[in-house]
Amino acid sequence: MEFQQPLIRATLIKRYKRFLADVTLSGGQQVTAHCANPGAMTGLNDAGMTVWLEPNDDPKRKLRYSWKLVEAGTGLVGIDTAMPNKIVGEALALGKVPELAAYDHIKPEVKYGENSRIDFLLTGDGLPDCYLEVKCANLSRQKTLVEFPDTVTKRGTKHLAELANMAGQGHRAVMLYLVFRDDCTAFRLAADIDPAYAAAYKIAKTNGVETFCYATKISTSAVTLAQPLPIL
Fold first, then answer.
1. Cβ of 35: how many Cβ atoms within 10 Å?
2. Are residues 110 and 206 in the same domain?
């Protein structure tokens, strides 16, 4: 997935109200950027960090810049939680997810369960319908290890229960964790941050929910799906 506009470098002053960030551009100008991330962003929003913004000229948008990447750890980390679905959707269309390559129809944002929407519904002749949920993982508290979630997620716990229900009805149900940073080699649940999510994960696995984890290749021009990573 390519960025629509070339990203520009800036320095983070502070992130606040979850969705706003004050930054200093290379020329010294201070601006406010949109931060499309409701999570804790632990280790990713410290003052002085180098960030990458996507500019826009849309008169309907209040802010001219969107915060997309941050330089953290030993590489680049994506912080825009709207991007992972686009990355996975593009990969699915290109057959880049081997476990799901047999499906030839991909529908995003399909209503199901109890007032929920599945990220992708995959269908194909002779195949069970596949309900695919995507979660973005970018928390790293230990070198080379990425974790999810970075804060309590009741919504995420509900999604696991919905997937388990679909699997119980004979459908295929998949949780795909997209590692939105390029310096990690394995994934695990942050059970200490959200014990309820970890418990729901175990129940979902017991009831037939499949779990995959994929790395991403990140640059200031594009982000693409990379190799699968082990789930510890």
1. 25
2. yes
pLDDT digits (tens, 9 = 90+) for 26-45: 999 999 999 999 999 999 99
**Dihedrals phi, psi of 62, to nearest 5 degrees:** -70, -35
- What domain range is 65 assigned to? 8-78
Bond into 149 cis (ω within 30):
yes
Give tens-digit pLDDT for 138-153: 999 999 999 999 999 9
- Answer yes or no: are the C-beta atoms of 95 and 137 closer than 8 Å: no
Last residue of a domain, one of 61, 78, 95: 78
**Same domain, residue pair 145 and 118:** yes
Question: Do residues 218 and 142 share a domain?
Answer: yes
Residue 129 CA: distances (Å) to CA of 11, 106, 174:
45, 10, 11
pTM higher than 0.70: yes
